[in-house]
Amino acid sequence: MSEITCLGVVGGGFMGSGIAESAARAGLSVVIHEPEQAPLDRSRARIEESVRRAAQRGKLSEDEAAEMLGRITWSTELEALTAADAVVEAIIEDARAKGSLFKKLDQLLPDAIFLASNTSSIPIAEIAAWTRRPERVIGVHFFSPVPVMSLVEIVRAIDTSDATVAAADALAATLQKHPVHTPDRAGFVVNMLLVPYLMAAIRMYEDGFATREDIDEGMKRGCGHPMGPLTLCDFIGLDVMYAIGESLYEEFKRPDFAPPPLLKRMVVSGHFGRKSGRGFYEYE
Ligand code: CAA
């Protein structure tokens, strides 16, 4: 597979915008696609703000910041992705939505292009089954905030070829991310370990065992975590946490993965955490 100079990103949310920003910082051209204009405008504003902060902190010159933004195109046209050498999908955690997107990408893009999903919990094999190129479908799972976190999980599905794994490794290297390799199993490495811990923190709070502040300060000050677990849940998004917990529970039927009743109540009430202004904490 040839070198990647232009990366396509489908989904301009927190993850998709972060992936696009990392790619543009690494010198790649980037096309971000969303079918609606409003999320694209939010994506552009988010990336511009992040780049402005980086420039203010002296990490980029004004010229470099402008060049970096100039490498990114935001488009409502799926066809704009034909400029890309590889595509990373970062849309909602919904197997049908991802499947039908991959079907369209498969029909649109040349056979040599590999298609990656940033899913944290949907089987890559299930997504790949919607395409005629399952050997060129792979999981490339980023961590938020993407420009800061240096890990990607590279997830090989049952039909993924060695060449596709090598191409994903090369993409990770270009983006200056450290790859860890895992088979296609819910949770991969990190969420398999992280999710039971976060669900346990929610249960502890739900039971009234300790305050949200004491739970968070306990893990920050006692274990040196950059964020306490309830703050981290708000940061990841409670809807995302719920979806990951459900997938892990469905796969392994282990109660420590199951979303606690409080998490479900918060999600159905629209309390998604930082992005909606309210989760375990309140945000401006
Ligand atoms: N975009 C770009 N850069 C950002 C950023 C963002 N959204 N947020 C913070 N940064 C940068 C800052 O510019 C700063 O950079 P420098 O030090 O080089 O100047 C650095 O990160 C630290 O930022 P701050 O000083 O503002 O704040 P902080 O020290 O509190 O760090 C944090 C913020 C990096 C988010 C830190 O709190 C942290 O590491 N939290 C834990 C995050 C985590 O666990 N992520 C994984 C979630 S799990 C996941 O993503 C996978 C899944 O499937 C659920």
UniProtKB/TrEMBL annotation:
Pathway given in the UniProt record: Lipid metabolism; butanoate metabolism
One Pfam family from the record: 3HCDH_N
Stated name of the protein: 3-hydroxybutyryl-CoA dehydrogenase
Keyword set includes Nucleotide-binding: no
InterPro entries found in the cross-reference section: 3-OHacyl-CoA_DH, 3-OHacyl-CoA_DH_NAD-bd, 3HC_DH_C, 6-PGluconate_DH-like_C_sf, 6PGD_dom2, NAD(P)-bd_dom_sf
Domain named 3-hydroxyacyl-CoA dehydrogenase NAD binding: residues: 8-182
Organism: Paraconexibacter antarcticus
Keywords, comma-separated and alphabetical: Oxidoreductase
Domain 3-hydroxyacyl-CoA dehydrogenase C-terminal: 187-283
Similarity section: Belongs to the 3-hydroxyacyl-CoA dehydrogenase family.
